[in-house]
Design a protein that fits this description.
The complex is a heterodimer. By secondary structure, chain A is an alpha/beta fold. Chain A has two domains: 81 residues, Urease, subunit C, domain 1, CATH 2.30.40; 316 residues, TIM Barrel, CATH 3.20.20. In chain A, 29% of the residues lie in helices and 23% in strands. Chain A is built from 14 helices and 18 strands. In chain A, strand 9, helix 4 and strand 10 form a beta-alpha-beta unit. In chain A, helix 2 runs parallel beside helix 3, helix 7 runs parallel beside helix 8 and helix 8 packs parallel to helix 10. By secondary structure, chain B is an alpha/beta fold. Chain B has a five-stranded parallel β-sheet with strand order 7-6-5-8-9. A four-stranded parallel β-sheet of chain B has the order 2-1-3-4, with helices on both faces. In chain B, helix 4 links the parallel strand 3 and strand 4. In chain B, helix 1 packs across helix 5, helix 2 packs across helix 11 and helix 5 packs across helix 11. Chain B is globular and about 50 Å long. Chain B starts with 31 loop residues before the first helix and ends with a helix. Classes of the chains: A alpha/beta, B alpha/beta.
């Protein structure tokens, strides 16, 4: 008989199955075999989860692992360790590597490296266009066969509407969603933060909300026409949320994600930063992210969108960078936030556990139909992978970037107290993070 | 001690508030008293500059390094003259021709300049916020000599000084700033300084050159993190009505290529500060320009050299204002 491990006496929340009860989760042979009161009484080993919450392992559909090409920023090994720290047992790796993941060889490299060095599951996302150049389609069928679970030119929008139409038709035929980073490059040109009162105050070139909203509207029109699934990455404006809401209401195959930082932080983070700044203005490069942090009204709209189902899930857009990439002039600084390890705590600053967990588990799985690739992913159904995250929603901790497992210490949250800590992460029935 | 070498006497530098600043990054947190301190110190410096030998040893033994990542004529020259008039050693470093061209980072560059002995670092940079980054990494005083679109505090101080010389107390005075407000560090710093001095500020320009939050119909923001409220006007004739000061900003020619304006011709038609428009202002209203000017575009050539123009005086005052700033910062640290 295979070794068995029980997580005992926790409050089990399995949103996919509508479970919210104190119970044991029994893992045998690396899979979930039972959830129930005293289901784990006879297990070889057990973890006491009393007073804690037991959830399916979190799934992040928007992670930058940087390997190959930018190993000084992150590797598959360090990025998946950061994922485990953040409670994520599955991450979908974005293809803006060097070379970009536009070939079967690249997709296979990611899978092979993850198999050998990864701490949790890595599902590769491949490019829509060759070299992410936005000119010609990549060989999407071959990429799918190699293991890509979606296609995206993330970081670069597909600016050419005709190409986007063809990408939706072609990828739709193969059954892969197209994930678009919606930003009209003509409108955002040169912009480094949200265009608004704070950019005016700081004299920084702004990115208007319309840069996102025009492309979201375009993608919705194309999805409606082609009946192919478009997934809108990191929605950040009230207008974009409203456009998705209306599109869904008339049955357009569109889904959307939102990052923990767009649910919580505003453009004021650029100005204020952590700690004291000379002259009172931080120009915090760690708050430089794309899409930019926007207004309090936009944050409110994103929250509302997540609560009413307009936005399908939370995704981190984990974008690790080396220290020197951020320790420079604001205009020159790299774009992105290292987000895996703060995702839960940040999300729980504005969402309840009951709201957050669906958005971190079954929500992302449904968005990209990941259950087709990994049976039972994002659930604690019998037979599902033994991916479990144990959290203490009341535990407070201080964000200390230097202690991150990620190589990317770039977070605007340094020194901030967050509530909600990952106590243990189990992947395939093995404890990969033990923070007890 | 001869008069030529005498430092400014404490009597002429009686300050209404204690000076505690290490850096001059912007005027956004300056009180009216602090601005008065700078302006009163500037008066003393003007007196020094009027002497036969315009030198005092107030900063003897101090090193001022100017670090310019962008070109400049008047700002750089006036800082250099100001430092020398105070007896400091002044060294000029340009990004071009320095290790910046070899890829040295801003932080390494300012640390290097501190290591060679800079007490005061005068910095101009094309990226907004760059002097703030420098100030985080050096003990030397950092003086912002212009950063991107953000701030140019010594320009605003010399503008306010020049206005005060002619108008006295600026409370209730109407100051119109005309032109490319969106991309202007001069406009931003003047908005702060003039608001602190109690003036009524009107910004005027085409909608395409007004930034978010400073457009007609924008809600008057009471948010503490935005610029102070100003009046906004797209029609220059209306803006100039009753003005005490009209300040034209330089129009950068590349604005035409990015679709912000149809032509220089149309811009001049709508926004040139000229005699006809100035007739709507208060009699004797001051005409100002931070330079460098595009005569015939944002300002008519005849007006630029008219009796109402104080443009050259602005440049002259620039030296005294920068002496005051160097003096106060060097003293504040001691």
């Amino acid at each position: 008989m295979s070794p068995s491990l029980a997580i005992r006496g926790g409050r089990v929340i399995d949103p996919a199955n509508g479970v919210d009860a104190v119970a044991d989760v029994l893992l045998v042979g690396g899979r979930v075999t039972a959830v129930g009161v005293d289901a784990g009484a006879d297990a070889n080993e057990s973890i006491d989860a009393s007073g804690l919450i037991v959830s399916p392992g979190f799934v992040d559909i928007h992670t930058h692992l940087r390997e190959p090409g930018f190993e000084h920023k992150e590797t598959i090994a360090s990025g998946t360790m950061a994922a485990a720290r953040g409670g994520f047992t599955t991450v979908c790796a974005m293809p803006n590597t060097e070379p970009p993941s536009d070939s079967a060889a690249c997709v296979e490299f990611v899978l092979r490296t993850a198999e050998a060095q990864g701490v949790v599951r890595v599902l590769p996302i491949a490019c829509v266009t060759r070299g992410r150049a936005g000119a010609e389609l990549a060989e999407i069928a071959e990429l799918a066969q190699a293991g890509a679970i979606a296609v995206s030119d993330d970081g670069s929008p597909i600016a050419d509407a005709h190409l986007m139409r063809r990408a939706l038709e072609y990828a739709g035929m193969i059954g892969l969603p197209v994930i678009d980073h919606c930003e009209d490059p003509a409108l955002s040109d040169g912009g480094v933060m949200h265009e608004g009162l704070v950019s005016t105050r700081l004299g920084l070139h702004g990115v208007p909300a319309s840069a996102e909203e025009t492309l979201v509207a375009r993608d919705i029109a194309l999805a409606e026409q082609t009946l192919s699934h478009v997934h809108i990455a990191h929605v950040s404006t009230a207008g974009a949320v409203e456009a998705v809401r209306r599109a869904k209401a008339r049955g357009v195959p569109v889904t959307a994600e939102v990052t923990p930082h767009h649910l919580t932080l505003t453009h004021e983070a650029v100005l204020l930063g952590p700690g004291e700044a000379p002259g009172g203005l931080a120009y915090d490069t760690n708050a430089k992210v794309n899409p930019p942090l926007r207004t309090a009204e936009d944050v409110e709209a994103c929250l509302r969108g997540l609560r009413d189902g307009t936005i399908d899930c939370v995704a981190t857009d984990h974008a690790p960078h080396a220290i020197q990439d951020k320790l420079c002039e604001f205009d020159a600084a790299a774009i992105g936030i290292s987000g895996l390890e703060t995702a839960l705590g940040l999300t729980l600053t504005t969402l309840s556990v009951e709201e957050a967990l669906p958005a971190l588990t079954i929500g992302p799985v449904r968005v990209l139909s990941l259950g087709r690739h990994v049976d039972g992913l994002g659930t604690l159904s019998p037979g599902a992978p033994g991916d479990v995250t144990v959290i203490d929603p009341e535990a407070e901790w201080i964000v200390e970037p230097e202690t991150f497992a990620s190589k990317g210490k770039n977070t605007p949250l340094a020194g901030r107290t967050l509530k909600g800590r990952v106590v243990a992460t189990l992947y395939g029935g093995q404890v990969v993070l033990d923070g007890r | 001690m001869t008069q030529e070498t005498a430092p400014p006497t404490p009597a002429t530098l009686e300050s209404p508030s204690p000076w505690i600043r290490r850096h001059l990054l912007d005027l956004d947190d300056f009180t009216r008293d602090e601005i008065d301190t700078v302006l009163n110190t500037t008066d003393a410096m003007k007196e020094v500059l009027g002497r036969d030998v315009p030198r005092v040893p107030a900063l003897r033994g101090k090193t001022v390094i100017t670090l310019f990542y962008e070109s400049s004529t008047r700002t750089r020259a006036s800082f250099e003259l100001a430092g020398k008039a105070l007896g400091a050693d002044v060294i000029n470093v340009s990004a071009g021709g320095s290790s910046v061209e070899k890829g040295e980072s801003l932080i390494d560059t300012v640390r290097t300049l501190q290591a060679v002995g800079a007490d005061l670092l005068v910095m101009r940079h094309g990226s907004s916020g760059a002097p703030y980054l420098a100030a985080r990494h050096v003990r030397a005083s950092v003086i912002n000599a212009g950063d991107g679109w953000h701030a140019h505090p010594t320009q605003a101080l010399l503008d306010v000084y020049t206005m005060r010389t002619h108008l006295g107390d600026l409370r209730g005075r109407r100051v119109v700033i005309v032109g490319d407000i969106a991309h202007s560090r001069v406009a931003r710093s003047n908005i702060w300084a003039l608001t602190a001095a109690g003036a009524e500020v009107v910004v005027c320009g085409p909608l395409t050159l007004l930034p978010a939050g400073l457009r007609p119909g924008d809600p008057r923001s009471e948010e503490p993190l935005s610029l102070p409220p100003v009046k906004v006007e797209t029609n220059l004739d209306r803006a100039v009505e009753g003005a005490d000061v009209v300040m034209a900003l330089r129009l950068q020619q590349e604005r035409m290529h990015s679709g912000l304006l149809p032509s220089l011709r149309e811009y001049a038609t709508l926004y040139q500060v000229n005699e006809e428009r100035l007739a709507r202002a208060q009699p004797g209203a001051l005409v100002m320009h931070p330079g460098p000017m595009n005569e015939g575009i944002e300002i008519s050539p005849s007006l630029a050299t008219s009796l109402q123009s104080v443009i050259e005086e602005q440049v002259t005052n620039g030296v005294a204002v920068r002496m005051a700033v160097l003096y106060l910062l060097a003293r504040g640290k001691a």
